[in-house]
Design brief:
The protein is mainly alpha-helical. It is built from 8 helices and no strands.
């Protein structure tokens, strides 16, 4: 059951002593499940990770959300990525670029409005992501 795995993933992300490989395995299982019903909870946890300035959780949850939600989740991921948590964001950036490449037309439609966002960091991040539209 995906909900049990999501609960387990959240517990592991909150546990500083959780095994890294096991945490990644659980995240990969959720992503592979295809269960879009898990998205609201995962998205809520992504918001919490950003609010708590937890870059590790942001990266891991962003990847799971990208896998399950696809291009439709670009605005959420760009907004999460726009918050400077002091990390390099390699994983989250790669997820955003992959989603843009997966459906360039939809990506452009979703990202273009964000370039006019009141939050300049979001607008800049959307501009950055649009550079990857072929």
């Amino acid at each position: 059951m995906t909900d049990d795995r999501v609960t387990r993933l959240i517990e592991m992300l909150d546990d500083l002593d959780a095994d890294l490989d096991e945490t990644i395995d659980v995240a990969d299982e959720i992503a592979a499940s295809g269960d879009r019903g898990a998205l609201p909870r995962l998205e809520s946890e992504l918001d919490r990770a950003v609010a708590e300035r937890n870059s590790y959780s942001r990266e891991l949850l962003g990847g799971v959300i990208a896998s399950l939600g696809g291009t439709d989740r670009l605005p959420l991921l760009v907004r999460a990525s726009a918050v400077d948590l002091g990390d390099d964001q390699d994983g989250l950036a790669a997820e955003i670029v992959d989603l843009v490449h997966a459906d360039p037309k939809a990506a452009q439609e979703l990202l273009q409005p964000l370039t006019r966002d009141d939050d300049l960091a979001v607008a800049n991040r959307a501009d950055w992501a649009l550079r990857f539209v072929p």
